[in-house]
Amino acid sequence: MITFAIGLSIILLIVVLFLLFRIGTLASIFRGSSQRASGTTKTSNKVNSALLLLFLFVGGAAFFWSFARYWDEMNQPLASVHGEWTDSLFWTTMIVIGIVFVLTQILLFVYSYKYQHQDNKRAYYYPHNNKIEIVWTLIPAVVMALLVFAGWKTWTKITSAAPEDAVVIEVVGKQFNWIVRYPGADGKLGVADYKLIDAVNELGVDFSDPNAQDDFMPMQLHVPKGKPVLLKIRARDVIHSVFMPHFRLKMDAVPGMPTKFWFVPTETTNDMRSKTGNPDFNYELACTEICGRGHFAMRFIVVVDEPEDYEEWVAQQKSFVDQNPDILAKFSNPSQERLVMSKEAEKAEEIKSEL
Amino acid sequence: MSSADISIHKDVHHAHDEHDHHHDQNFFEKYIFSQDHKVIGKQFLFMGILWAFIGGFLSILFRLQLGWPEATFTFLEPILGGWIENGKLNPEFYLAMVTMHGTIMVFFVLTAGLSGTFFNFLIPLQIGARDMASGFMNMLSFWFFFLASVILFISLFLDSGPAGGGWTVYPPLSALPQAIEGSKSGMTLWLIAMALFIVSQLLGGVNYITTVINLRTKGMSMTKMPLTIWSFFLTAILGLLSFPVLFSAALLLIFDRSFGTSFYLSDIYIAGEALANTGGSPILFQHLFWFLGHPEVYIVILPSFGMVSEVISTNARKPIFGYRAMIGSLLGIALLSFVVWAHHMFVTGMNPFLGSVFMFLTLIIAVPSAVKVFNWLATLWRGNIRFTAAMMFSIGFVSLFIAGGLTGIILGNSSLDIHLHDTYFVIAHFHLVMGAAAFFGMFTGVYHWFPKMFGRMMDEKLGYIHFWLTFVAVYLVFMPMHYLGIAGFPRRYYSWTTFDSFSMFGDLNAFISIAAIIGFGAQFIFLFNFIYSIFKGRRASMNPWHSNTLEWTTPPLPGHGNWPGEIPAVYRWPYDYSKPGAAEDYIPQTVPFSETQSSNLPHEKDLE
């Protein structure tokens, strides 16, 4: 019944609108405005040009108001060294384009209002002026050159090689969560091979590698404040992207192609909790490359510690091998492993010969 | 050279004259399998409008989810069936809708719908030709597009859903059916549809280029062509050079999906199994995709540049300012569009040095784009502006193009792109600069050339209402998205509530969704106006806008062959508006200088 009532009222509304439209059309024929050349009728010119000007003022005011209103929310708390560079470059560029935006929009709408059609007027025949063209080609060219230069300098600094003493952490994306691996006391990550992956050994670490013995995989990503941290990024299945908004950090995780990104955190989680006044504040790691059903839920907690707290935390972590002693059994007998491999190879060859 | 051309033209005229006299076409030849460029143009327009409503409707569906993530959508069950699970939208279907919205809008509406309509309709009419160089190829172009449309449409109704890996269909996600439902048969149909679509584009492109080069009427030198034709011509070249690259990318993806090759796949463990594929590179696909993908955004926007230039000049009653600078900037943008593709890939792990190079090349594009905007503004200056519906949309276009184009300067900067890549800042940027702006270009074209297409006028007042609702809605939807983007809200997220960092802006998202619904609703005003005016609109005169270009010298509803008699010759450029000394404020291209002695400029005296 309600659906019927809604349907009926919609139909009635459409009928009323249609009748209004017909009346308007007939009235314009009666007034003779349809006899004039299109776009020269007085009322529609006045109304439209006034609305354009109104749009400029109201729209502009709404823009500035909303910008100020949401200023605090749109600026995520910042916690990395390179983030300071990119943030300042971002807002510098925003000011430059903001000025151009305001000027050009004002000219567009004010000209539209000012030069609306008048019967007794004629437009000014002004087909070209090469001097002006050169001027307004050169000005954006120079501004662009400056912005490119600033961007290029920042970019080379950010993407330069990580310092030797950087803390190395592996971050691996999979459907639909992140796994991190620390190199342990030896500072070296053991080699990994995607063919070794199973339900326990989710990263396919080769535990016959001595470097892998002390690797550990915690449930949170801890990094020390003020020290360079190098993320070695991999993906297991499809492309993911490591995004840590507070560190202004993003790098794709690509299957078959390891990537990396290094940064220096500047504020600990506790610093940030008192700074933002939010006792539950957490740094987060999100995925920004579409990866399937759970793309929106690949949340991982990032914790920035004071260097000494970080050392303490690392010392507390148990290596993966300690936690899963059974895992070594798989790697204890390399010859057996090889036998299996060669059998597989044989199978593959059989298939080939069949084909 | 020119004499040879003329003799060819004469032959063509004869053939057509005979054709007209001796052969009555039946219904199918005239309206379905037509080889007439005007009918084909309208076919593209109808398909484009149909697709635009489907694509727009999808966006409303996912805006409902984003605006009210906690709400239940049981009322959508009659439409979506199994995709609503316990009142909740299925997250994979959400991704599929995002994907199809992008594919439909970019390719099927703003490429085929926009180029297909106006290139076909306007090129012969504005250069003074009886038809396209090959009417048959032109017809094939439409029917390949139609076939692609049917296949893509069918994919919407598959059990496993349509393609769901984003409109960029990056492998391995799009290559592995285990990874997402959308990579099952939905993706297969997507690839087939795109392959057919590319065939359609290439058949059309060859035709457009050939027609512009060979079939211009007497006197229509390249420097007397309207800017519309210049932009169409360059767009067709872009398409012809870049679409084959997408074809090869799609072909290799088909091989990876169906024949076990490893072009894009390497070292993958998925669904409890390590795949044998090794040595491929997912990045290779991205390079190939964006080698088309970037020129593609200019394929979408260049035709609008042309049409807007034409409409602004006509309705400001002023010559377009800097005609040659406009052509030069079109050429510059077209050329540069081929060497900036990797700015979509700054954070893919590509060598940082490449990032620097592509940043430099990308930011250069801002220069010719700025020149265009300044020229449009200079054209309005001291004009005598007639606010037709088409003109309103042109002004809206310039405003949106500025708003969206400027943020490109930020995104093209690789160090700023680190934070903003794949966030709503990107969504806001490209929707303004090539989505909404290209739609405004399309509306400009429809309102302006409707009289020539259907012999009747569209209702101007409804046009104004349509314009204002759409214009305001576009800004209300996309301006706030910048704020979300600066805060880092990632795109293609089913909901943001899982993250503390993205827990704010719930109100803003609901606001955006409401604005989107209003904007979508406003399009039904256009639809009504469009259909009603085809049948009941006021009859159009031959030249209702007092415009200079050649198409307005044809009868209100041009028949097969366009001009009843001889094709008119061209004597002057198309922008002699408000020339001092002339009786009217416009002098059509077909008026020789000998008839306008009172208004001729000193250097034109020799041409009398």
TrEMBL record, chain A:
GO cellular component: plasma membrane
Topology in membrane: Multi-pass membrane protein
Domain Cytochrome oxidase subunit II copper A binding: 164-316
Domain spans labelled Cytochrome oxidase subunit II transmembrane region profile: 67-162
Subcellular location(s) per record: Cell membrane; Membrane
Pfam families for this protein: COX2, COX2_TM
Gene Ontology terms: biological process: ATP synthesis coupled electron transport
Keywords: Copper, Electron transport, Membrane, Metal-binding, Respiratory chain, Translocase, Transmembrane, Transmembrane helix, Transport
Principal location listed in the UniProt entry: membrane
Transmembrane segments: 6-30, 50-68, 88-113, 134-152
Presence of keyword Methyltransferase: no
UniProt catalytic activity: 4 Fe(II)-[cytochrome c] + O2 + 8 H(+)(in) = 4 Fe(III)-[cytochrome c] + 2 H2O + 4 H(+)(out)
Broadest EC class assigned to this enzyme: translocase
GO molecular function: copper ion binding; cytochrome-c oxidase activity
EC number annotated for this UniProt entry: 7.1.1.9
Co-factor binding comment: Binds a copper A center.
Listed PANTHER family: CYTOCHROME C OXIDASE SUBUNIT 2, CYTOCHROME C OXIDASE, SUBUNIT II
Assigned protein family: Belongs to the cytochrome c oxidase subunit 2 family.
Function (record text): Subunits I and II form the functional core of the enzyme complex. Electrons originating in cytochrome c are transferred via heme a and Cu(A) to the binuclear center formed by heme a3 and Cu(B).
Protein name, UniProt field: Cytochrome c oxidase subunit 2
Species classification: Bacteria, Pseudomonadati, Bacteroidota, Cytophagia, Cytophagales
TrEMBL record, chain B:
Gene Ontology cellular-component terms listed: membrane
A single MF term (Gene Ontology): cytochrome-c oxidase activity
Membrane-spanning ranges: 44-66, 93-123, 135-158, 189-215, 227-255, 288-309, 321-341, 353-377, 389-412, 424-450, 462-490, 510-532
Protein's UniProt keywords contain Heme: yes
Gene Ontology terms: biological process: aerobic respiration; electron transport coupled proton transport; respiratory electron transport chain
Domain of life of the organism encoding this protein: Bacteria
UniProt key word Cell wall biogenesis/degradation: no
Boundaries of every Cytochrome oxidase subunit I profile domain copy: 27-571
Matches recorded under InterPro entries: Cyt_c_oxase-like_su1_dom (IPR023616), Cyt_c_oxase-like_su1_sf (IPR036927), Cyt_C_Oxase_1 (IPR000883), Cyt_c_Oxase_su1_BS (IPR023615)
Family: Belongs to the heme-copper respiratory oxidase family.
Protein name: Cytochrome c oxidase subunit I
